[in-house]
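Please check this one:

***
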Amino acid sequence: MPSSSATKSRKSAEARRPRAPGTSSRGGSQALWPLLIGIVLDVFTVRAASILALEGPKPFMLLYPWIEVLRLPIFHFTGEMVGTLTQWLLYLQFPLYGLLMTLTYRVDRRWRTINYGLFAHFGGVLLVVIFSYF
């Protein structure tokens, strides 16, 4: 049985050993920061949407592209269904981006995670632009 001093010196040697660059633990509360940012951002974007709605459909589409995707005629949604879905999506779009980024944060690096959120948002803008010509 090793002595307690040998165990302490082994633990202190492990604590002093520097980590390799790029390796970090991505668990716990650190992995939830994208979801929390998405929830906080949602409060401000709903307020901005009320201002942008007065400017017309184009600025509103840049903030909430997935609402405009739901309004496209290719989906054949009824007016009542579109109204309900857009209300849900108005409050869930940015927390869903945060959830997507939280799930990818555990796997990839921080900048790549932010890029996933940006691709999801601007992918919606691209879909609206492409399908508005058809």
